[in-house]
Design goal:
Elements (H helix, E strand, L loop, with lengths): L3 E3 L4 E3 L2 E3 L2 E5 L9 H11 L3 E5 L2 H4 L10 H12 L3 E5 L15 H7 L8 H14 L14 E5 L11 H13 L6 E5 L3 H7 L5 E6 L3 H11 L6 E6 L15 H13 L3 E8 L10 E3 L8 E3 L18 H11 L20 E9 L1 H8 L4 E3 L5 H4 L4 E16 L1 E7 L1 E6 L2 E7 L9 E12 L15 E8 L2 E2 L3 E7 L30 E9 L5 E4 L5 E6 L2 E7 L6 E4 L7 E9 L11 E4 L1
Parallel strand pairs: 4-5, 4-11, 5-6, 6-7, 7-8, 8-9, 9-10, 10-11
Antiparallel strand pairs: 1-2, 2-3, 12-13, 14-24, 14-30, 15-23, 16-20, 16-23, 17-21, 18-19, 18-20, 21-22, 24-29, 25-28, 25-30, 26-27, 26-29
Family: Belongs to the glycosyl hydrolase 35 family.
EC number: 3.2.1.23
Catalytic activity: Hydrolysis of terminal non-reducing beta-D-galactose residues in beta-D-galactosides
Length: 592
């Protein structure tokens, strides 16, 4: 057992000054079979600590229904076995470019802006969650023989709110549930963020990517006597769909890291290893200076241009950082562990079955509702996935423009069964007017809930209504398909032949729907799934959700961790949400 305390200028471990050289690694973005390899990579880079968030929505997808909360404890055990300390950031809000910033949509859907405040209903939910989560953390604190040195209160709250009483309530809840480790907050190095997000008597840390001396000078104005720590040194950045891949020069990033350490500060590399937002859990941002602009969905890869890349490989940034960190090590650094096995040879995915979206929805979707006004995803209990809305245009009537108000985020529209276009929040009107009578179906997708800024927690789906000319179309039939439904497999789905391989009884090749196939693997190991010619959807291998794919780029393939694959036959599912080209090449697995 060790005593970790916060002194006036240093962190103290059993009374001796210690500098935390930490790296962020999210257990939920790394396959459990690869935790130990990634932790060994962090040690080899020169780190003595690892930091992780805990996403509430992943572990409590519905009220009182918990999913593998024990993964938190297993990860912390692996951290200790790797010879590392741990920093835990349990939220309840985490940002992390994760769906809804880690908050369950069943919480934010009913509370709106009252989330992340002292609202009694919100705190009731948080208290219930913490009482389930904290038994995984409390016994693994350093003063009980475990690796956990510090626990965070909320996350970057000064970038969102100013309810100091809310932070105090969270700190008291953590203490009441047995957290004895030092608590801390983390915020941007700006006065309004530090005044809104810090808490008297709790260590304040700052997050930045450069200009360490200026950042720490700002922190010193607020906390003249406390250890300095950059809790998030942004050594890379994340990507958006239809954007550019973010890259930071390794030498420049290493220079910024050196400046932090020259200030006598501790540091947490964000990210040391980013990993992957498997299962469609990637979040989204709003553009513009005030984060109120167009939606910018995050890609599936969370590579982050980190020193350890998405596949667990050391990069040039790893080598540069290792050189800097070696100067602060007590002895020689361990060598990096052997790289995990890569796929032995490229392999083609043979698609053998197809079911239209209507059939998939009938087999795996929720119950249909009929309401005067279109329900949101939150109304239907849909976290990740899509909703089919159906409305009737009365007739006879002449053609008028059809518009969706408050569309979040993207709708593929069919009029009397024929494809009519794709609508977005920025372009919510069909290109061709619609005459009545007609049946209109809108398959609306969530592209990821906002994880940062004032629009966090905003609802998904049709949040305003469907207009024909200026008239609302009432009487909406809605049915949702949550990605969680695929966790139980697709045995109930009525598969037929793949379009183009049958006698013409189903639509042509490339039709939207669920494709099932197999891929034969020789030499199972890390791989990437390429889907040339596909437009937009989700992929699974052996029931493991690889995440969203999208021809918009910049991401061009999906990471398939080696532990997911097996020698011989492997089952592949592709949920294609928009008509693809009829001559698209076959999907394939490639070595990494």
């Amino acid at each position: 057992m060790s005593a970790f305390t916060v002194g006036e200028s240093d962190f103290l471990l059993d009374g001796r000054p210690v500098r935390l050289l930490s790296g962020a690694l999210h257990y939920f973005r790394v396959h459990e079979g690869q935790w130990r390899h990634r932790l060994a990579m962090l040690r080899a880079m020169g780190l003595n600590c690892v930091e992780t968030y805990v996403p509430w929505n992943l572990h409590e997808p519905a009220p009182g229904r918990h999913r593998d909360v024990g993964a938190v404890g297993r990860f912390l055990d692996a951290v200790g076995e790797a010879g590392l300390w741990a920093i835990v950031r349990p939220g309840p809000y985490i940002c992390a470019e994760w769906e809804n910033g880690g908050l369950p949509s069943w919480v934010t859907g009913g509370l709106g802006a009252r989330a992340r405040t002292r609202d009694e209903r919100f705190l009731l939910h948080v208290g219930s969650w913490f009482r389930r989560l904290l038994p995984e953390i409390v016994p693994r604190q350093a003063d009980r023989g475990g690796p956990v040195l510090m626990v965070q209160v909320e996350n970057e709250y000064g970038s969102y709110g100013s309810d100091a009483g809310y932070l105090a309530e969270l700190a008291a809840l953590l203490r009441a549930e047995g957290v004895t480790a030092p608590l801390f907050t983390s915020d941007g190095p700006e006065d309004h963020m530090l005044t809104g997000g810090s808490l008297p008597g709790v260590l304040a840390t700052v997050n930045f990517g450069s200009h360490a001396r200026e950042a720490f000078a700002t922190l010193r104005r607020h906390r003249p006597a406390s250890p300095l720590m950059c809790m998030e040194f942004w050594c890379g950045w994340f990507d958006h769909w239809a954007g550019q891949h973010a890259v930071r020069d390794p030498g420049e990033a290493a220079g910024a890291l050196r400046e932090i350490l020259e200030c006598g500060a501790s540091v947490n590399l964000y990210m040391a290893h980013g990993g992957t937002s498997f299962g469609g859990w990637a979040g989204a941002n709003r553009g513009g200076d005030l984060h109120e602009g167009p939606l910018e969905p995050d890609v599936t890869s969370y590579d982050y241009d980190a020193p350890v890349d998405e596949y667990g490989r050391p990069t040039e940034k790893f080598r540069r950082f290792r050189e800097v960190l070696a100067e602060y090590a007590d002895g020689p650094l361990p060598e990096p562990p052997p790289r995990p096995a890569s796929l032995g040879a490229a392999a083609e995915v043979v698609l053998t079955g197809w079911a239209g979206l209507d059939g998939v929805l009938e087999a795996l979707g929720g119950a249909e509702t009929v309401t005067p006004v279109a329900p949101t995803f939150e109304d239907l209990g849909i976290t990740r996935g899509l909703v089919r809305y159906a409305v009737d245009v009365p007739g006879p009537r002449r053609p008028y423009p059809l518009t969706v108000r408050g569309l979040r985020d993207l709708a593929t529209v069919y009029v009397d069964g024929e494809w009519a276009g794709v609508l977005t929040e920025e372009e919510p009107r069909l290109p061709e007017p619609v005459a009545g009578p007609a049946r209109v179906e809108l398959w609306v997708e969530s592209l990821g809930r906002v994880n940062y800024g004032p629009r966090s927690g905003e609802p998904k789906g049709i949040t305003g209504g469907v207009l024909h000319e200026r008239q609302y179309l009432h009487g909406t039939r809605a049915r949702g398909l949550d990605l969680a439904a695929f966790d139980d497999g697709v045995a109930r789905v009525p598969f037929g032949l793949v379009p183009g391989l049958d006698t013409g009884a189903v639509p042509g090749a490339g039709a939207a729907g669920l494709y099932r196939g197999t891929v034969t693997v020789r030499g199972a190991g890390d791989a990437r799934l390429e889907l040339p010619g596909s437009t937009r959807g989700f992929a699974w291998i052996n029931g493991f959700g690889l995440g969203r794919y999208w021809s918009a780029g910049p991401q061009r393939s999906l990471y398939a961790p080696g532990p997911v694959l097996r020698e011989g036959g492997n089952e592949v599912w592709l949920l294609e949400l928009q008509q693809a080209g009829p001559d698209r090449p076959a999907p394939r697995l490639l070595p990494v």
